[in-house]
Write a structure and sequence with these properties.
Oligomer: single chain
Number of helices: 2
CATH class: Alpha Beta
InterPro entries: GlpE_sulfurtransferase, Rhodanese-like_dom, Rhodanese-like_dom_sf
Number of strands: 4
Organism: Macrococcus carouselicus
Strand order of the largest sheet: 2-1-3-4
Pfam families: Rhodanese
Distance between the termini: 11 Å
CATH architecture: 3-Layer(aba) Sandwich
Protein name: Rhodanese-like domain-containing protein
Domain Rhodanese: 6-84
Radius of gyration: 12 Å
Strand content: 15-25%
Length: 84
Amino acid sequence: MQKMESDESMHIIDIREDYEVQTGMLKGAEHIPMQTIPDHMHTFRQNEPYYIICAHGVRSEKVTGYLRDHDFEAYNVTGGMAAF
């Protein structure tokens, strides 16, 4: 979480469903629903960190693992949006 609080440019991917993001998103986050991540793999770049967020951190943990399995640098935002 410390890195997320810095001013560094970063890729935050909000994987919540459409109805969930209607309540708000983190500034600068990109919305890619969890089920569509495989369809968006071509948009991810190697050697760049991605911070994956969902409502509570459970779904984002799964997506983080999926991205890591495909050799991407990915981090789960523990606690998800509920932590904010």
